[in-house]
Structures are given as C-alpha cells and as structure tokens.
Write a structure and sequence with these properties.
The complex is a heterodimer of chains A (about 250) and B (about 475).
Chain A: H1 2-10, H2 16-26, H3 30-40, H4 54-76, H5 86-110, H6 114-123, H7 127-138, H8 145-166, H9 171-179, H10 190-207, H11 213-216, H12 220-224, H13 229-237, H14 239-250
Helix pairs in contact in A: 1-4, 2-4, 3-4, 5-6, 5-10, 5-14, 6-9, 6-10, 7-8, 8-9, 9-10
Chain B: E1 2-9, H1 13-24, E2 29-33, H2 40-44, H3 47-69, H4 81-105, E3 109-112, E4 114-117, E5 122-126, E6 132-142, E7 146-148, E8 161-163, E9 176-180, H5 184-195, E10 199-203, H6 215-227, E11 231-233, E12 238-243, E13 249-253, E14 258-261, E15 263-266, E16 270-272, E17 305-307, H7 318-333, E18 346-348, E19 354-358, H8 361-368, E20 372-377, H9 382-386, E21 393-398, E22 404-410, H10 414-426, H11 431-436, H12 446-468
Helix pairs in contact in B: 1-7, 3-4, 3-5
The chains are: A mainly alpha (about 250), B alpha/beta (about 475).
C-alpha cells in the first residue's frame, strides 16, 4: 500500500498518461477500490444515485476529486497491509486481480455489465486480507499455512460480508462476497455472482498453470451462463492477454 | 439420428410460429435454440426489453411531472437503470414462462444447443456440455435472426462502447450518451435515454433520423427529442471512436469535431445471424448482404429448407417475422396460409411513439398522379387534452379519388392506433367512410375522423372548382 500511496501522490491529473494510470490503479487495488467506493457513497459526497462502479465514480466526480480521495484512502489505509502474511495476502490479491479481469471478459461474452463484474471480481475475496491482517495483529507467532487456510475458510466470507455492510459497498459486491461459492443461493445479482464464480475458476486455473478446457468442463457457473465449449475455448484464448495485464498491474 | 417432420432453427418470433403451426397440424417438430429459453433477441435483447424500459421510463417521467405540478420542487431521481432493468427482467421471465408452456402444450421438442448443417437433410447440434447429436428432417426453417453490425472504426467493448444487444447491460445511467445511427433502434434508445435524463447526442450520416418516414413524423420526433435535451447531428461522418483510457468516449467526426460522452451506443444496423450454421453444406448461398434469399413462400434455393425473420432481411419486424414463420410452415405442410396481407404496419417505440402503414405522400402521388393529405393534431381531440399528450399528429394520405392509401401517426398510442388505418387499407375504404362512421368519444381514434374531414373538405373544394370551370 505505501507503494500505491506514493504512486497516487506522484500522479498528475494534467498528464493524460498519469490519469490513465491512476484510473487503472484505482481499478486494480482492492483496498483503494473499496475505500473509493465507501467515500464516494458516503453521506457527504453521495450523489442522487448510488455509485456502483469505479468508472462511474471517476466520470461523476472527475479525476481531480478521485485523486484526492485515493490519496486519502491510500494514506489512511492500513487495513489491507499484512506484513506477517504478505505471501498469503499477495496470493489473495493475485486471485482477486485475476478474477476481476476474467469477470470482465466473461461478462463481455455473456453481455452482462462488465464494470459491475470487474468490481465484484476484484472484491469477491476482500475478506481474505481482513482476516490475514487480523491474524497478524492477534498473534506475534506466525501460524502454519494449514491453520491460516483454515481460518480463511472459516472467516473470509463473514469478514468480507461485514466489510461490505459496514462500508455500504454496492449490493452486487455484497452478494458476490456471500454467494460466490453458491451463486444459486443469491436472491439477487445471480448472474453477476455466477460470472465471478466462473472467473474465480478461470483465475485459479491460470494461477495454477492449468488453464484448459478440461479444468473447466462441467462447471456449474459455465452452464448457468450458457457458455458453449467454443465460448470457453475463446475465453481461454484470452488467457495470455489477461496474464500480461496481470503482470503489468502487479509491476 | 433423430428424425422429425420439421426442424426449426432459432426460437425467436419466426421460429416459434413456424414450429407451433406445424405442431398444430400434427407434425413432429423440433426447435433448436442456442439460448436456454426460446424467444430470441426479440425477448432477451431487443423488442420486449427496450419497450419495457421505455414504459418504465415514461411512468417515472410522469410521476416526476405530476410531483412537480404539485409544487414538489425536487422529485425523486428518475432512478438508476439497474432498477429499471430489474423490472424488465420480470417482464421477460413472464414471457419465457408463457412461451415454454406454449412449446410444451404443442409437444414441440425444444433442443438446447447450437446447430450446424451436415447436408440439406441433416444437422448436428452441439449442446452446452459439448455433446453432439445428429438430427434429420423432411423440412427445415432457418429462423436464426440477426445480430448488431460492428463497423471496424467503432471498437465495441460492451463497457464504454455498446451495441444494441449489450446496451441494456448498463448498470447505471450515464451522464451522457452518443448514439450512432439514425434508424429505428438508434431513435428508440436515443429518445428513451433522453427521457431518463441522459444527455444524448445522436450522430448519423443522413440529414435527419428516420428518413423513411413522413416529414411530419421526423419533425415531431426531433422536436420531442430536443425538448428532452437530445441533440441530433446529421450529415456527419464518424471517422473513429476511442475510449480515452479513463472515463470518456471520444467520437471523431470527419469535419474535425470531437463529441465527448461517458458512453456510446453503436446502432448502425443489424446483420443476419448465421454463425456456425454452415448453410453452404445444405446448398444454400447467402447474398452480398449475407441474407438468406427466399421466394414468396419463404423457400430458399433448396426447396425443402425455408427461412423467415431477420435472417432474410427487411422489414425486420417481430410482427412480420411471426407471419413469415407461420406462412413458411403452412407452405411446407401444404396448407393454404390465406391471403398474404399487403399492408404491414411498422411501429417505432421511440418517445413519442411513431407508427405507419401504407403509402407515403410521395408514393401516393407517384402511383395515383396526385395526393390529398389530411392532418389531425392531438390537441384538436379531447382525449389528447385529457391524457396530457397534445403533441401527436395523425396524417391521412389519400389518392385523388378519396381512397385512403396511407396512415402515419406520431404520439401516444400510435402503434395501436395505426391498426384502424391498416383495416381501412385492407378494405380500400375512402376518407368519407371515416367521416360517416361514429367513433367513441373521447378517444384518440377520433383523429381518423378529423383527418378524414380534412381530406374530404379538400376534395369537396376541388370538385367545386372543377364544376365551376
């Protein structure tokens, strides 16, 4: 996060390249994205309608205002920093980033809203860094990977749901956090949750180096979204560009 | 290999009607649909969703206007598109349930998958799980519909730059929207989003939108569009469209102007949807516009294979597609489909509504050597004032012998009102018929009588002049 903060502060809105970079930064950092959404939907700033997407926030408030918000958010935000569990946090973030990019691609094919899908993909596991941070703060002794995984399995969704409620994140994000492992259980936003569920599977397969049709066949969300084998093959074909985008965003 | 009397490919309006017609005649019918539900683009992307959105937009506008009339200065915001679309989803779901029941009731086997011809008598269907099955039939109806045209200079990403199939995936109302095109779809969406409070700019190559309509209709559309804050840029060449990488879409015009907007809708026509169908394996060739050519009975160049709906080209109306599907099925069954209606009404669900049937003023003059035009304005009709929609116009076009040749309407209920004119055209009634018969009062239908009086008055003057010569 300090790196992000430094980059936000250093960016100049007068420079189009910086503006593009800052927009990208806000759209690729879980902590920053959550904070920006929280702040733009706060009573002080809230417009006539709820801001439900990051690009909408940028368009509504302008890059200057968004930059101010991003600076404030990134400087004040220690929530997502976990020095003790940096590797686990990084893995969770890699998954979030991969899921966000895949969500956008899948939504595009399904003619679902790409912005909402992207945001939901980015924040689907936002509970993970919260839990990791809490574990790190609670115990000076580093827990075993197995114990960490167990705690994440138990608390990640609950922590994410609480965060979504506390920060009043868009309802689609809240539904995704709660139901990404059981999209049919969602009473609303079922399609977007299915998109993210699908995207998480793509992202995991990609991160594991197993992105192929076999790893994805018969997956419930793929069926729900009416993705035919040729659609899945076309999506897999986009894997390289997503990997490249992830590397660029991680740099 | 499964065998059927008829296989219909595509579950939109044309396909459904063809399937139902054949099933009711006792034939074994399969309908292959790549989506999970039947209905096609009509139900899921086009006709019904956009009309539902229009109705919701108008309802909300009326509420806002009433609140303002009551002195409530700050009526509730018109709402986000997500909630409007949420309401539409209910409409679509109800329609899906109805259509699924209709298929079941008629014992039509609905096959969920993507079809491709193997020969003129067989095809393969690939299901979502990748399994393949082969089907053969005595007859086929191709009713695969259409998809939006994507010009190479408009990089449609369904995120900032949309087409007419993806525009309703918007999650929020953009502050501004550029609509490329001046046809029916462009005009409908442009006017609906303008009513919803979006700053809309329509850009088209032609001088006016909807150029095929009578000038009064075009002017009425443009006036209403401008009143809702819309802007039309005509005779413009779009050189390129680009996303600025942050939040704006830039539309570069040939004269150097750049139109900046939050989102863009590209509505520059639709093309036939034949992806993966391999019609060439069945011996069917498509024309230079990628349309399947058919004869008056809907037969392609391969006589036992028919085509109907958008895949054969204009008029690209759901109503016409249904009739094409029905007639194709009748012909292949050897059933008399009845007289082929000459007068197909067209409805444009813009704000305001526009509808038309029959000949235009120019066509009537050319065909009959003269023309008499009668105009009725909604503000001359009690119902127009009661319903607070005084801006409509009904234009009656008659030949010099007084026979009505065309009806053109702009205003509330135009798409329903036009059918009175359609019946009149079918029976070649004269303007006098409309004058001599009683209409309910107060109704918009009174416009027919007012316009007819305008026509008969002119004819009477002309007769008097001729008599005095």
């Amino acid at each position: 996060m300090p790196g992000v903060a430094a980059e936000v502060i250093a960016s100049s809105i007068d420079d189009q390249a910086d503006a593009i970079r800052l927009a990208q930064l806000i759209q690729t950092d879980q902590g920053l994205a959550s904070h920006v959404l929280r702040i733009v939907n706060s009573p002080a700033l809230r417009a006539a309608m709820e801001i439900v997407a990051l690009r909408q926030a940028i368009a509504r408030l302008g890059m200057n205002r968004i930059r101010e918000i991003a600076i404030a958010a990134s400087l004040s935000n220690a929530l997502f920093a976990s020095a003790t569990y940096a590797d686990e946090a990084n893995r969770a973030w890699q998954l979030a980033l991969g899921a966000s990019l895949w969500s956008k691609e899948i939504a595009r094919v399904c003619r679902k809203n790409t912005e909402i899908a992207y945001l939901c993909g980015l924040l689907h596991n936002v509970g993970a860094p919260v839990v990791l941070n809490a574990i790190g703060a609670a115990s000076p002794v580093r827990l075993s990977p197995r114990d960490v995984a167990g705690l994440l399995a138990e608390f990640e969704v609950r922590a994410g749901a609480l965060l979504a409620e506390e920060w009043r994140l868009p309802s689609a994000v809240a539904a995704t956090i709660r139901y990404v492992d059981d999209f049919r259980g969602a009473s609303e936003h079922v399609d977007v949750v299915a998109v993210v569920r699908c995207a998480v599977r793509f992202a995991r397969s990609m991160l594991d180096g197993e992105l192929n049709a076999n790893a994805l066949s018969g997956f419930d969300a793929i069926d729900h979204l009416n993705l035919y084998p040729e659609d899945v093959a076309a999506l897999i074909g986009a894997g390289e560009s997503i990997r490249t985008a992830m590397q660029a965003m991680s740099a | 290999m499964k065998r059927y009397d008829l296989i219909v490919i595509g579950g939109g309006p044309a396909g459904q009607k063809a399937a139902v017609q054949a099933a009711k005649a006792g034939r074994r019918v399969a309908l292959i649909e790549q989506l999970k539900e039947v209905g096609g683009a009509c139900v899921h992307q086009g006709t019904i969703p956009s009309k539902a959105l229009r109705e919701r937009a108008l309802e909300r506008r009326r509420v806002a206007e009433r609140l303002q009339a009551l002195g409530i200065d700050n009526p509730a915001p018109i709402g986000d598109v997500g909630s409007l679309i949420g309401e539409m989803t209910e409409v679509i779901r109800n329609h899906d349930v109805y259509m699924a029941a209709q298929m079941k009731r008629n014992a039509i086997e609905v096959v969920h998958g993507r079809a491709s011809f193997l020969s003129s008598t067989a095809l393969r269907v690939r299901s979502i799980d990748g399994r393949e099955a082969e089907y053969c039939a005595e007859h086929f109806v191709i009713a695969t519909g259409s998809k939006p045209r994507h010009p190479p200079n408009v990089p449609i990403d369904h995120e900032s730059i949309y087409d007419s199939d993806s525009i309703l995936s918007l999650a929020y109302l953009p502050a501004s929207l550029v609509v490329l095109g001046g046809g029916v779809i462009a005009s409908e969406y442009a006017s609906i989003f303008a009513v919803l409070g979006v700053d809309v700019t329509m850009i088209d190559r032609a001088a006016t939108p909807l150029g095929f309509l009578e000038p009064e209709m075009v002017q009425g559309f443009l006036t209403a569009f401008a009143r809702h804050g819309g802007r039309f840029i005509g005779e413009a060449v779009v050189e390129r469209v680009e996303f600025d990488g942050v939040s704006r879409v830039l539309t570069h015009l040939g004269d150097g102007r750049v139109v900046d907007s939050e989102k863009l809708l590209c509505a520059l026509g639709r093309i036939s949807q034949l992806d993966g169908l391999h019609v060439e394996r069945a011996g069917i060739t498509v024309n230079e516009r990628q349309l399947v050519e058919v004869n008056a009975f809907g037969q392609t160049s391969v006589p036992h294979i028919y085509a109907a709906g958008d895949v054969i080209g204009p008029p690209s109306l759901a109503s016409a597609a249904m009739e094409q599907g029905r007639r194709a099925a009748c012909h292949l069954l050897g059933i008399d489909p009845g007289h082929r209606g000459e007068w197909i009404p067209s409805g444009i669900y813009s704000v305001p509504e526009i509808a038309s049937v029959g000949l235009t003023t120019a066509q009537t003059r050319e065909r009959f050597g003269g023309v008499v035009v009668g105009i009725a304005k909604f503000n001359e009709i009690a119902r127009g004032h009661i319903a607070r929609c005084p801006d409509g116009v009904l234009k009656m076009v008659a030949s010099p012998d007084g026979v009505v040749r065309g009806i053109h309407i702009i205003g509330d209920n135009a798409t329903d009102l036009v059918h009175i004119g359609q019946m009149g055209l079918i029976h070649a009634v004269s303007a006098e018929t409309y004058v001599e018969n009683v209409f309910n009062f107060p109704t918009f239908a009174e416009c027919y009588r007012v316009a007819a009086l305008h026509v008969t008055g002119q004819l009477s003057v002309a007769r008097s002049r001729r008599a005095s010569l």
